[in-house]
Fold each of these.
Amino acid sequence: MLPNGLRIGGGLCWKLARTASSSAATAPSRVTGTTSSPASSKASSRSSKHASELPTRQRRRLDFCDDHFGVLEEPEGPVNEQSRARIQVLSESLGCSLASATSIVMGNRKILDIRKETLMKNIGMLKSLFPVRDIMRHPEIFTFTFGMAEQRYRNLEECGIKIITPARVVRYADLMTQPAYSLKLSGLIAAETDAATHLLSFLDCPAGVRAEILSGLPLHHPISLSLAEVKRAVLRGYLAWRLGCSREEIDALVKKYPSVDNRSLQFLRHTIELLTNHFHMPCSKASILRNGFVLLAHPGNLEAQLSQVRHLAGGLDVRELAGLCPRLLTVPAENLIRVERLLQAHGVTPAQVQRCIRIYSLSPETIEARLQEISKVAEFDVRRECPRLLNLVYYASKARHRLELLSQLGHPAGGVSINVLSMAASDFARVFYSGSDRGRPRETAEYLAHLLGKPEAEDFMLDVMTGEWCTQTHAKRTLIETVPV
């Protein structure tokens, strides 16, 4: 606990350090907007004195129940602009006073590191699960990554926890590592509830499969196994049946993607249904095991892609693109829309996008920065019409490293094709030692064909190129000098 802090409703708040004078006794409160009288101040003082005489445990209980955020401490020093922006977002999203929002932000500095859009989505999701009053008692829940609180809520619900509160979502790890027997003794799970059977009730597997999964658990699992271990056994048994593969293959998949073990069974079932019924991804060992990360896709996001995005890259169905690049299934729908608009604003053609569908998996900010970086380099800027332009954007870090390596050997930036800068490491090693770059003449020919507007420009270029060091910048300069406008 911070020095001079006062714990209120599970959060650290600031208490007013100044004593109100008699002239300011009737001034409006900064928190509630109401006026107070000297008599009320004396009553408050007497109640505070009485509370201080109570045992520590009772005082903590009183603090926990007090949720009016009416006692605040002045922040040390001025509040910067970033903090003011976050305070405004919290005040508008939660419908609370600026003083309450200030206490939340100043007591949980991690909120400042969260993007505004993510914070607002988190608050919207939390408001759909809990009353705002309960959320404000545990402001640390705002710092969770998007979707984590909802997934914890569903997992606790599936395990049979009777009443789920923000406090229990925050204590998720502690609850899931306890056996069902201990939680029944504390009253969190009903005495007649069997955790394994309750988990299976959220799945669509037949009775025979349920019996097989239950038979794989020890008879004393309510005492010997934690909730997390029981859930893990049920989840892996369900996946083995749903995908038609062995437990060993499921174990290998989870080892590669550990977050699959933490997935809500409701989310997992709904995600698989959407993948097989709407995105036409075959629910088989070959497709799912090869792209196990698709099991981490949020079903709500998949539905948003179907309803809001529909088409990308010049009219291609988003369901077809998901088959070409399954990674898109994990990209937020709003990001896909922003990337599409960004590429159009920079003049990127649908043909170029279709050559690098993976570009949609990058954030719009990253794409914007890399396109601007390309425009500052003359040798790269002339390649804006190259069909593989987005490969240079997608593999920017790899390309930058390889350019530094090649420049040490005296190779100019314009003398290297995009194919070399973005190819696999084994292929690059071969080109690096052999010195051959067959993609460079092709890129130059395609560029001149675009400038001349003639298909025969490719043959013309192949005839007149002066060797392997001809670059697109040199070709453009030569064309301007020799071809009259």
Amino acid sequence: MTSKILERSINEFFEVQQLSDQTILKPNRKVKMKILDEGLMQTRRAGFKSHMNTALLCFSRAAGWLAHYYDSIDSKAPILRPQELYL
């Protein structure tokens, strides 16, 4: 009984996944990575080598996390998180 329920839910999941891939991702459409390219160009202009991209990303993420942490301590307000609508 549980295997049939599990199989049905897995099949439904893959049907929804396939529909979302067809409608959202739009196959045969190239994705433009303009923001990433501009960010990489600015790091090159600043004098960083291309092998430093991962470290720069980690440092910037860590700075953002620390800013959220210190803000939550100072203001006693909850950290704001973006809300998503899941269909």
